Amino acid sequence: MSASATRPWKVPSVLPGFGLALGLTLVSLSIIVLIPLAALAIKAASAGWADIIAIATSARTLAALRLSFGAAFVAGLVNGVFGLLLAWVLVRYDFPGRRLLDAAIDLPFALPTAVAGIALTAIWAPNGWLGAIAAQYGVKVAYTPLGIAIALVFVGLPFVVRSVQPVLEEASREVEEASLLLGASHFRTTLSVILPGVLPALVTGATLAFARAIGEYGSVIFIAGNVPMVSEIAPLLIVIKLEQFDYAGAAVVGMLMLLASFGLLVIINGLQAWTRRRLGNV
Amino acid sequence: MSSPLGALFGRKFATRWLIGLSAVSILAGSQISLAQSLLNVSYDPTRELYREINTAFTAQWTQKTGQALTIKQSHGGSGAQARAIIDGIDADVATLALAGDIDAIAERTTLLPKTWKTRLPENSAPYTSTIVFLVRKGNPKGIKDWGDLARPGVSVITPNPKTSGGARWNYLAAWAWAQNAYKDDKQVRAFIAALLGNVPVLDTGARGSTTTFAQRGLGDVLISWENEAFLVFDEFGKDNFEIVAPSLSILAEPSVALLDGNVDRKGTRAAAQAYLEFLYTPKAQAIIAKNHYRPRYPEHANPADIAILPKLSFVTVDRDFGGWTKAHKDHFADGGSFDQLYKPSR
Amino acid sequence: MSDALSTEFIGRQKAWLRPAHLTRFALIALGLAFLSFFLFLPLAAVFAEAARRGFPAYLAALSEPDATSAIKLTLFVAAIAVPINIVTGVAAAWAVARFRFFGRNLLVSLIDLPFSVSPVIAGLIYVLLFGAQGYFGPYLRSHGIQIIFAVPGIVLATIFVTFPFVARELIPHMESLGSAEEEAALTLGASPWKMFWTVSVPNVKWSLLYGVLLCNARAMGEFGAVAVVSGKIRGMTTTMPLHVEILYNEYNGPAAFAVASLLAALSLVTLGLKTLLEWRYADSLAARRKH
Question: Per-domain residue ranges for chain A?
């Protein structure tokens, strides 16, 4: 499609189709993603600086953002710990049903979030399967931040496992065995030899889970309780602002979340580059 | 690639996709372009009511005109539904929880004139309803009146007045009772703040709150539409719940309006107008009473349906709160009394 | 195997007391407990609640007209969104994985962006653009084009949330393969399209299929973005996940879970196919293993 050799911003290549492929990508990206997101930015800006700051720093917005980020962070931590454990179990041990378990890890990717939401509510509501038991001990799960965190653990579960797994698989056993042969205990070997190797992948996975959890709506909305300042997540605040005809307010909160996600995305890409450098080549 | 997956994804995959795609699009296309179709955008608790009304009206319409007619429904919190209409949902009629939400449509769009309320009888509200309490069987917390809802240790379920029409009626009813009881603005505000402090879940619509209370077992008392409370009896059995009528409640007038801008574009004015007028007919009034709303013309209803409704004394928005525009500004707009008083400490 | 190795080193202790075995047992048990709690239990809840009123009620919930129209709409939306994402995903992967140009990294980040944007925002942006009060809405409306609260809006929102899936699977795979085979085909006189169809596509077809699977699962299951733009008109603009929510709000728990179980079954099929792909074509998928 193109005589690309003359373009100063591109390394020459014998392969064809650059113009067509890049053109198609840019056009679709613009129509589907960039122009609509620009509309969001324009709408948010239309509120004017004073209003933007007022909306962004209002107690309710801050509480919603704190909850979304806080619960997502907790879920990211839980997923970090158990994701590492699961990856370890799946890579290092052989036991009946291992492959089935491995396959099941991706369930949250495949299961629609609304389905997860009503299922989790059925389990954790005060009269639900486990919620009733928890209630006997005075613990409320559904309609509290705890329920939100549980839903977010569910949606973020595969990220850490799938990030850590390939690294563990490729991590050289020889180093580990050498460490054991040199007299180090299992525990020490794990701590000082294996863990540093998987650390970048672990952080990447946990960050991905965190990023996904911040914006999650479908699975949370059923179990959240939606009480302003207590269990109202930021995406719900956007919906509520929209339902009150407050388009600019919705756009401002949306913009705040978008900036946070984009920042996280940059961090994630940096982390992945770090992982690649540490492992040489994945 | 001789595996089934290979076959699915071999060189012919593009053709297969195309065939599949066109088959599906024909299916979906045929289903979207039906003869004449009305869209009724309504609030949360009317699902059962309009299902019955629609069946009755379409039968009558087809009999009268020979024209096939389908009526589509969309339900949600009243504010949310008004927002959908403002954003361009193709609704022929709006049947919302309160006049204020239809006023909002008239204010922000050119879909209907600001005088819409005068175009149909009875303030464009073919039925009324009110607010009652639903408590668990035996009324373990001894809830008798509004004052009990602000007691420490009582858990109250009500939707968010920012998005739910029903919740606005709830809020104003509580406010009216407190004004009557305390006659002092400071005490009224303290009462409302205490009541709101007892709310553990604030759903976006009345239906969400009912689900939370009845199905999920949360809360000691649900502040509810009267019809919604009776519906809980029908759906979950009378053995688990009781209705408590407070000493003072509010006369709720859920309003209906034709959306001229939309019906003229779609060419559905005649059917839509007839649909709204149908709501005032004896047949519809009977259906309305059967679904536990209060018909404007109770003489057409089954007396048994009327007899079970509790006798209450009412305040009205127009008389006691200066109309919806003022009530909205005082209480529900950003910075209104709800925003000032809703400061959960937990 | 290092188990053999460690066995030798700690051979003095009784077998079942060996720390390695104890840890192993404990870790597997802990992992299983975690998964049961967070994964299997919700899945079981879906099917158990769906079965609560027996099989006839289950079938009735799925064959009721609003349910069938929701199923049809869901299939229809996926049938448009997925092919569009295949074309754009392949184009993006070709541009990114086969060429080096200024702004390439930024492009990759932008393609990934929909992954980290809240679904609610994905819906909101189309309301801001195409709603009656939006930037293009009034113009489109005056020309009789309805996007929000109609099928086109649902399709757009779905394309948005599934935009990165295909490209994300293809890019690492194509990068790891390198372009030697394609260059060879060109040298041997193949036309660009011939090279594309006979070398490039067959080489990555398993990761392409993999991406399509994930894309399709998300397209059929999207809730948040679609909820904002749908208007929830029963039988017209309700997809299966929205129909689940509507039924749930109508005290029709068993019917809601019946439709939900269909979606859950669909996701299990997706997982099955995905696992099959990973087992049988592990080599050609090796480059892919990350999300």
Answer: 48-281
